[in-house]
Design goal:
about 50% helix, 10 helices, about 10% strand
Length: about 270
Protein backbone atom coordinates (compact mmCIF):
# COMPACT_ATOMS: atom_id res chain seq x y z
CA UNK A 1 0.00 0.00 0.00
CA UNK A 2 1.24 3.52 -0.84
CA UNK A 3 2.51 5.67 2.02
CA UNK A 4 0.45 8.69 3.03
CA UNK A 5 3.02 10.95 1.34
CA UNK A 6 2.74 8.96 -1.90
CA UNK A 7 -1.04 9.28 -1.73
CA UNK A 8 -0.85 13.01 -1.03
CA UNK A 9 1.45 13.54 -4.02
CA UNK A 10 -1.19 11.82 -6.14
CA UNK A 11 -4.09 13.96 -4.90
CA UNK A 12 -2.32 17.32 -4.30
CA UNK A 13 -2.73 18.61 -7.89
CA UNK A 14 -6.45 17.89 -7.67
CA UNK A 15 -6.75 19.74 -4.35
CA UNK A 16 -4.91 22.77 -5.74
CA UNK A 17 -7.17 22.97 -8.79
CA UNK A 18 -10.53 22.51 -7.01
CA UNK A 19 -12.75 25.42 -6.03
CA UNK A 20 -14.12 25.59 -2.48
CA UNK A 21 -17.51 24.51 -3.83
CA UNK A 22 -16.07 21.52 -5.70
CA UNK A 23 -14.16 20.39 -2.63
CA UNK A 24 -17.31 20.63 -0.48
CA UNK A 25 -19.17 18.50 -3.02
CA UNK A 26 -16.38 15.89 -2.96
CA UNK A 27 -16.45 15.76 0.83
CA UNK A 28 -20.21 15.23 0.80
CA UNK A 29 -20.21 12.67 -2.04
CA UNK A 30 -16.69 11.45 -2.92
CA UNK A 31 -16.13 10.68 -6.58
CA UNK A 32 -12.67 11.89 -7.57
CA UNK A 33 -11.53 11.19 -3.99
CA UNK A 34 -13.08 7.71 -3.93
CA UNK A 35 -10.43 5.01 -3.38
CA UNK A 36 -12.56 1.85 -3.41
CA UNK A 37 -16.10 0.55 -2.98
CA UNK A 38 -17.61 -2.76 -1.97
CA UNK A 39 -20.51 -4.38 -0.20
CA UNK A 40 -21.10 -6.21 3.05
CA UNK A 41 -24.47 -7.92 3.03
CA UNK A 42 -26.85 -5.31 1.67
CA UNK A 43 -24.65 -2.38 2.75
CA UNK A 44 -22.52 -0.32 0.35
CA UNK A 45 -19.09 0.56 1.68
CA UNK A 46 -17.09 3.44 0.22
CA UNK A 47 -13.51 4.36 1.15
CA UNK A 48 -12.41 7.91 0.33
CA UNK A 49 -9.10 9.75 0.49
CA UNK A 50 -8.19 12.26 3.18
CA UNK A 51 -4.68 13.53 4.02
CA UNK A 52 -3.20 12.21 7.26
CA UNK A 53 0.54 12.11 7.91
CA UNK A 54 2.82 9.05 7.91
CA UNK A 55 3.81 7.60 11.26
CA UNK A 56 6.81 9.15 13.00
CA UNK A 57 8.79 6.21 14.48
CA UNK A 58 9.99 8.55 17.26
CA UNK A 59 6.43 9.24 18.48
CA UNK A 60 6.02 8.32 22.16
CA UNK A 61 2.25 7.88 22.06
CA UNK A 62 -0.21 6.85 19.35
CA UNK A 63 -3.89 7.79 19.68
CA UNK A 64 -6.00 5.41 17.62
CA UNK A 65 -9.58 5.98 16.45
CA UNK A 66 -11.86 3.91 14.22
CA UNK A 67 -11.81 5.97 11.02
CA UNK A 68 -11.94 9.68 10.16
CA UNK A 69 -15.54 10.89 9.89
CA UNK A 70 -16.80 13.25 7.23
CA UNK A 71 -16.14 16.35 9.38
CA UNK A 72 -12.56 15.28 10.12
CA UNK A 73 -12.07 14.39 6.45
CA UNK A 74 -13.30 17.85 5.45
CA UNK A 75 -11.11 19.61 8.02
CA UNK A 76 -8.03 17.73 6.82
CA UNK A 77 -8.70 18.31 3.12
CA UNK A 78 -9.40 22.02 3.58
CA UNK A 79 -6.31 22.53 5.74
CA UNK A 80 -4.14 20.63 3.25
CA UNK A 81 -5.50 22.70 0.38
CA UNK A 82 -4.95 25.91 2.37
CA UNK A 83 -1.32 24.89 2.92
CA UNK A 84 -0.74 24.05 -0.73
CA UNK A 85 -2.23 27.36 -1.90
CA UNK A 86 -0.09 29.21 0.66
CA UNK A 87 3.05 27.70 -0.84
CA UNK A 88 3.81 24.96 1.68
CA UNK A 89 5.42 21.84 0.25
CA UNK A 90 3.65 18.48 0.29
CA UNK A 91 5.17 17.23 3.56
CA UNK A 92 4.38 20.49 5.38
CA UNK A 93 0.80 20.58 4.08
CA UNK A 94 0.28 16.94 5.04
CA UNK A 95 1.59 17.41 8.57
CA UNK A 96 -0.57 20.51 9.10
CA UNK A 97 -3.67 18.69 7.88
CA UNK A 98 -3.13 15.73 10.21
CA UNK A 99 -2.61 17.66 13.44
CA UNK A 100 -5.33 20.22 12.65
CA UNK A 101 -8.04 17.60 12.17
CA UNK A 102 -7.32 15.15 14.99
CA UNK A 103 -9.62 14.87 18.02
CA UNK A 104 -10.95 18.40 18.28
CA UNK A 105 -13.52 20.10 20.51
CA UNK A 106 -15.10 18.40 23.56
CA UNK A 107 -13.68 15.02 22.48
CA UNK A 108 -10.15 16.37 22.94
CA UNK A 109 -11.05 17.86 26.34
CA UNK A 110 -12.39 14.51 27.56
CA UNK A 111 -9.42 12.60 26.19
CA UNK A 112 -6.87 14.93 27.81
CA UNK A 113 -8.62 14.66 31.18
CA UNK A 114 -8.64 10.84 31.07
CA UNK A 115 -5.04 10.51 29.89
CA UNK A 116 -3.83 12.89 32.61
CA UNK A 117 -5.91 11.06 35.24
CA UNK A 118 -4.05 7.77 34.65
CA UNK A 119 -0.63 9.44 34.57
CA UNK A 120 0.16 9.47 30.85
CA UNK A 121 1.30 13.11 31.10
CA UNK A 122 3.89 12.10 33.72
CA UNK A 123 4.98 9.13 31.60
CA UNK A 124 5.61 11.50 28.69
CA UNK A 125 7.23 14.15 30.88
CA UNK A 126 4.72 16.91 30.11
CA UNK A 127 2.54 19.05 32.37
CA UNK A 128 -0.61 17.88 30.56
CA UNK A 129 -1.37 15.78 27.50
CA UNK A 130 -3.13 18.88 26.14
CA UNK A 131 0.37 19.85 24.96
CA UNK A 132 0.29 16.97 22.47
CA UNK A 133 -1.81 19.29 20.29
CA UNK A 134 0.06 22.50 21.07
CA UNK A 135 3.73 22.57 21.96
CA UNK A 136 4.82 18.92 22.11
CA UNK A 137 3.26 17.65 18.89
CA UNK A 138 6.36 15.60 18.03
CA UNK A 139 5.50 13.23 20.89
CA UNK A 140 2.22 12.06 19.36
CA UNK A 141 0.96 10.30 16.27
CA UNK A 142 -2.76 10.37 15.45
CA UNK A 143 -4.17 7.53 13.41
CA UNK A 144 -7.14 5.22 12.83
CA UNK A 145 -7.42 1.48 12.29
CA UNK A 146 -9.08 2.37 8.96
CA UNK A 147 -6.86 5.29 8.00
CA UNK A 148 -8.97 6.50 5.10
CA UNK A 149 -12.57 7.65 5.73
CA UNK A 150 -15.15 4.87 5.50
CA UNK A 151 -18.82 5.44 4.69
CA UNK A 152 -21.60 2.88 4.90
CA UNK A 153 -24.56 3.69 2.67
CA UNK A 154 -23.22 7.25 2.50
CA UNK A 155 -23.03 7.75 6.28
CA UNK A 156 -20.07 7.81 8.67
CA UNK A 157 -18.90 4.31 9.58
CA UNK A 158 -19.49 3.64 13.27
CA UNK A 159 -18.34 0.03 13.61
CA UNK A 160 -20.96 -2.02 11.77
CA UNK A 161 -20.19 -4.24 9.95
CA UNK A 162 -17.14 -5.18 12.08
CA UNK A 163 -13.72 -4.27 10.71
CA UNK A 164 -11.95 -7.61 10.97
CA UNK A 165 -14.82 -9.68 9.54
CA UNK A 166 -15.44 -7.35 6.56
CA UNK A 167 -12.92 -8.04 3.75
CA UNK A 168 -12.69 -4.50 2.33
CA UNK A 169 -12.07 -3.08 5.84
CA UNK A 170 -9.77 -5.87 7.02
CA UNK A 171 -7.65 -5.20 3.95
CA UNK A 172 -7.15 -1.60 5.13
CA UNK A 173 -5.95 -2.96 8.48
CA UNK A 174 -3.62 -5.62 7.07
CA UNK A 175 -2.08 -3.48 4.30
CA UNK A 176 -2.10 -0.13 6.08
CA UNK A 177 -2.48 -0.27 9.85
CA UNK A 178 -0.37 -3.35 10.67
CA UNK A 179 2.74 -2.02 8.86
CA UNK A 180 2.14 1.36 10.51
CA UNK A 181 2.05 -0.28 13.95
CA UNK A 182 5.20 -2.25 13.15
CA UNK A 183 7.05 1.02 12.48
CA UNK A 184 6.12 2.35 15.95
CA UNK A 185 7.90 -0.16 18.16
CA UNK A 186 8.81 2.40 20.85
CA UNK A 187 5.34 3.91 21.12
CA UNK A 188 2.47 3.50 23.57
CA UNK A 189 -0.88 2.83 21.89
CA UNK A 190 -4.16 4.25 23.19
CA UNK A 191 -7.14 2.72 21.34
CA UNK A 192 -10.42 4.62 21.62
CA UNK A 193 -13.41 2.30 21.72
CA UNK A 194 -14.01 -1.43 22.15
CA UNK A 195 -13.72 -2.42 18.49
CA UNK A 196 -10.64 -0.26 18.01
CA UNK A 197 -9.07 -2.04 21.00
CA UNK A 198 -9.74 -5.41 19.33
CA UNK A 199 -8.14 -4.27 16.07
CA UNK A 200 -5.14 -2.74 17.87
CA UNK A 201 -4.66 -6.01 19.77
CA UNK A 202 -4.77 -7.89 16.44
CA UNK A 203 -2.36 -5.46 14.75
CA UNK A 204 0.17 -5.34 17.59
CA UNK A 205 0.11 -9.14 17.76
CA UNK A 206 0.69 -9.36 14.00
CA UNK A 207 3.54 -6.85 14.31
CA UNK A 208 5.11 -8.66 17.28
CA UNK A 209 4.72 -5.78 19.75
CA UNK A 210 4.48 -6.12 23.52
CA UNK A 211 0.84 -5.87 24.68
CA UNK A 212 1.97 -3.99 27.80
CA UNK A 213 2.36 -0.96 25.52
CA UNK A 214 -1.38 -0.96 24.68
CA UNK A 215 -3.46 1.16 27.07
CA UNK A 216 -6.94 -0.18 26.29
CA UNK A 217 -10.00 0.48 28.42
CA UNK A 218 -10.61 4.24 28.37
CA UNK A 219 -14.25 5.18 27.72
CA UNK A 220 -14.60 6.59 24.22
CA UNK A 221 -14.20 10.39 24.57
CA UNK A 222 -17.34 11.27 22.59
CA UNK A 223 -20.09 13.38 24.13
CA UNK A 224 -22.43 10.36 24.11
CA UNK A 225 -20.17 8.83 26.78
CA UNK A 226 -20.24 11.84 29.11
CA UNK A 227 -21.64 9.89 32.07
CA UNK A 228 -19.04 7.10 31.82
CA UNK A 229 -16.26 9.65 31.42
CA UNK A 230 -17.43 11.63 34.47
CA UNK A 231 -17.45 8.47 36.62
CA UNK A 232 -14.06 7.35 35.27
CA UNK A 233 -12.65 10.76 36.28
CA UNK A 234 -14.24 10.61 39.74
CA UNK A 235 -16.57 13.51 38.99
CA UNK A 236 -19.86 11.61 39.30
CA UNK A 237 -20.84 9.50 42.33
CA UNK A 238 -21.67 5.84 41.76
CA UNK A 239 -25.15 6.17 43.27
CA UNK A 240 -26.16 8.77 40.68
CA UNK A 241 -25.26 6.63 37.65
CA UNK A 242 -27.91 5.46 35.21
CA UNK A 243 -28.45 1.78 34.48
CA UNK A 244 -26.52 2.19 31.19
CA UNK A 245 -23.22 2.46 33.06
CA UNK A 246 -21.28 -0.52 34.44
CA UNK A 247 -19.26 1.10 37.26
CA UNK A 248 -17.34 -2.06 38.20
CA UNK A 249 -16.00 -2.40 34.67
CA UNK A 250 -14.86 1.23 34.65
CA UNK A 251 -13.22 0.90 38.07
CA UNK A 252 -11.36 -2.22 36.93
CA UNK A 253 -10.29 -0.56 33.67
CA UNK A 254 -9.00 2.52 35.49
CA UNK A 255 -7.02 0.41 37.97
CA UNK A 256 -5.49 -1.71 35.18
CA UNK A 257 -4.56 1.35 33.14
CA UNK A 258 -2.90 3.05 36.11
CA UNK A 259 -0.96 -0.15 36.83
CA UNK A 260 0.24 -0.37 33.21
CA UNK A 261 1.31 3.27 33.19
CA UNK A 262 3.20 2.83 36.48
CA UNK A 263 5.10 -0.15 35.04
CA UNK A 264 5.90 1.76 31.85
CA UNK A 265 7.21 4.70 33.92
CA UNK A 266 9.42 2.32 35.92
CA UNK A 267 10.80 0.83 32.69
CA UNK A 268 11.59 4.25 31.23
CA UNK A 269 13.38 5.33 34.43
CA UNK A 270 15.40 2.11 34.43
CA UNK A 271 16.79 2.71 30.94
Amino acid sequence: MDTQRDMFARFAPMLRSMSDEQLSEEIETPKRLLLSSGTAGNKRIDIAYAPFDDADPEARIVLVGLTPGRQQMGNALREARRGLLAGLNGAESLAAAGSFASFSGPMRTHLVAMLDSIGVNQLLGVRSTALLWDGDTSLVHFTSVCRNPVFVDGKNYSGAPPVLSTPILREQVELGFVPEVASLRRSIFVPLGTQVSEVVEFATSQAGLDQSRVLAGLPHPSGANAERIAFFLGRKPRETLSSKVNPDRLIAARAELKKKVTKLKAKSVGR
